[in-house]
Amino acid sequence: MANSSSCDSRKGSITHVIFDMDGLLLDTEKFYTEVQEKILARYNKTFDWSLKAKMMGKKAIEAARVFVEETGISDSLTAEDFLIEREDMLRSMFPTSELMPGASRLIRHLHKNGIPICVATGSHRRHFELKTQRHGELFSLMQHVVLGDDPEVKQGKPSPDIFLAAAKRFEGGPVDPQNILVFEDAPSGVGAAKSAGMSAVMVPDPRLDSSFHGAADQVLGSLLDFNPSEWGLPPFEKSAT
C-alpha cells in the first residue's frame, strides 16, 4: 500500500475520476483468458495468472508480444498472427459483455453529483464499440473516452500516456493530476496512474497475486466496496443500490 499520510492528503482534493474499462467496468477479461487458454492448449501449454498479470492493461500488440515470448511459442506463432486468431474468437464474445458489480451505481452517482468522469482504456475503437454495445446509455455519461489507438497514446500502460491524455480533455481544460482518482484492475494500469501523478484505487481479480497490489492507494474487492466519502467525494444516498 502507498504511504498513508501522502494518500490521506490527496483524498480531499479529488475533483475528477478516470475509469479503466476491461475487468473494471466490464467483465471482459474472462474472454481474453478463455481464448488464450484455447490457443495455448494446442502447444500443450497452460495459461496462468502470472502471465495474465503481465498482459493486463497493455496495448494489444504489446500484450501479444508478452504472450508469445513468455510462453515460448514465438517460433510457432508471431504476435501479429496471435492477434488475428484471437480477434476472430473475441468478435462474437464482446457484444455479450456484462457490467462488473457496482459499476453502474458508481458511474451514475458521480455523474448525478457533477463529478467529471471519463474512460481511459487500452482497447482500440473497434473492440470498444463491440464491448459497450449493450451499455451505450451508461457510457454516454462519460465526458470523453481515450482509447488505446488514440494518436496521443504513444505507449500503453504502464506508461502514463493514456491518463495524461485523459486529464487534458476534461471540459474546462487540463486537470492537475493530483486532483484525479483512477480506478484500475490491472497492475500496469495502477503503475500508469501513479506515474501520471494520480491516485489509484485498485479492484483486482481475486486470482491476482496480492504482491501486485502494492502501488495502489486503496485496494477493494469490488466497486460495491468503494466509499466516496473517504476521497472527499459526495457520499452515496442511503437508498442507493
Automatic annotation (TrEMBL):
Keywords: Hydrolase, Magnesium, Metal-binding. The keyword Magnesium applies. Pfam families: Hydrolase. Its EC number is 3.1.3.21. It is an enzyme of class 3 (hydrolase). It catalyses: sn-glycerol 1-phosphate + H2O = glycerol + phosphate; sn-glycerol 3-phosphate + H2O = glycerol + phosphate. One of its GO terms (molecular function) is sn-glycerol 3-phosphatase activity. The keyword Coiled coil does not apply. SUPFAM superfamilies: HAD-like. Its cofactor is Mg(2+). One of its GO terms (biological process) is glycerol biosynthetic process. NCBIfam families: HAD-SF-IA-v3. Belongs to the HAD-like hydrolase superfamily. DOG/GPP family. This is glycerol-1-phosphatase. The lineage of its organism: Eukaryota, Viridiplantae, Streptophyta, Embryophyta, Tracheophyta.
